[in-house]
Specification:
Blueprint lengths: L1 H9 L11 E6 L1 H12 L3 E4 L8 H11 L8 E4 L2 E4 L7 E2 L2 H21 L2 E6 L3 E5 L17 E5 L2 H18 L4 E6 L9 H21 L3 E4 L1 H9 L14 H15 L2 H18 L8 H20 L6
Helix pairs in contact: 3-4, 3-5, 5-6, 9-10
């Protein structure tokens, strides 16, 4: 395991991120998991404002939409609910106009965050996409619409690279200093089949390789390798055998923080986590006077800490 870890560490030198830097997380559910750890460590994070999205093309389209370089796709009705093919099902409304307003608010939030972010962390989940026959676009989510409305495809890396180059170009026009880290989700989408999952991941790896080869300040974080080549054990997965469990996610986080943070930032993270653990400590008698004293002590520690380090987000 140590040899594998050292090989991964030698393969990339990452930009350093510190408290006060803004981070944007986009992509699959693995991205949402990493957002939890960033927030827990005291960082400012915007996580998937239009919901979790697995395919690189609708994910890149979100950025183009946010900067006014593309138009919203079809809004469809599902019983009495309106949903958008540009977003996941977490974004919905009971009125089409209200959904459009919500979409515009989230896109504005994304544009503003990307305009000031130090780091964009993107997790690609699958190269299998569903193309809506009506519009010809690969959708962010099928929203349980009839299967015959879509055509499933395995998208080639070259086609995905094109849209991501456009997306990064529009970001860097307003934020030339942004650093971009791509990763491939370690989650195996076995409902497509094991061979099909491998083909999908291979296109995502090719996509990240093509992006790194053609653009500056683009990096690859080896989440897939850490789970599947270093840990290499189903005991680190949930019972479905597909999703990494909490121990595996913490392992990835520990690797990430050592590579992405300086020693002084990591010292600060340790202090943040220590106070958070105190806040989360389960009290045996929560209504007792001693419990009240404990909570007051923790509150004072937190307030004192934040007065010294105001750039930490609680």
């Amino acid at each position: 395991m140590n040899i594998a870890i050292e090989t991964l560490r030698q393969s990339e030198t990452f930009p350093k991120v510190r408290h006060g830097d803004s981070i944007v997380q986009l992509g699959s559910c693995f991205s949402a998991n990493m957002s939890y750890w960033f927030r827990r460590a005291g960082f400012q994070v915007l996580d998937n404002p239009l919901g979790v999205i697995f395919h690189p093309i609708p994910l890149g389209n979100q950025i183009l939409l946010a900067f006014g370089q593309d138009e919203l796709s079809t809004i469809t009705q599902k019983e009495d609910v309106f949903v958008s093919y540009d977003a996941s099902s977490v974004l919905y409304a009971l009125d089409e106009t209200d959904l459009y307003r919500k979409l515009q608010e989230r896109l504005t939030e994304l544009r503003e965050a990307l305009s000031r972010a130090k780091l964009l962390f993107v997790t690609f989940g699958s190269a299998h996409g569903y193309r809506l026959k009506e519009s010809g676009n690969i959708v962010a989510n099928c929203h349980q619409q009839p299967k015959n409305s879509f055509k499933k495809e395995l998208t080639a890396a070259e086609n995905m690279t094109k849209i991501w180059k456009e997306a990064i170009e529009v970001i860097r026009k307003v934020n030339p200093e942004i650093q971009i880290v791509f990763t491939v989700s370690p989650v195996r989408y076995i409902r497509d089949g094991l061979m099909e999952n491998s083909l999908s991941k291979s296109e995502l790896f090719r996509l990240t390789f093509l992006m790194k080869a053609s653009l500056d300040s683009v990096y690859y974080f080896p989440a897939f390798e850490l789970i599947n080549d270093v840990l290499r054990d189903y005991r680190y997965f949930e019972s479905d055998g597909v999703h990494p469990d909490s121990r595996a996610m913490e392992y990835v986080w520990e690797f990430l923080r050592m590579e992405l943070f300086s020693s002084s930032t990591n010292d600060l993270v340790d202090e943040v986590i220590k106070i958070r653990n105190m806040e989360e400590h389960r009290l045996l008698y929560p209504e007792s006077g001693k419990a009240a004293e404990y909570r007051d002590t923790v509150k004072q520690k937190r307030e004192s800490f934040l007065s010294r380090y105001p750039m930490v987000v609680w």
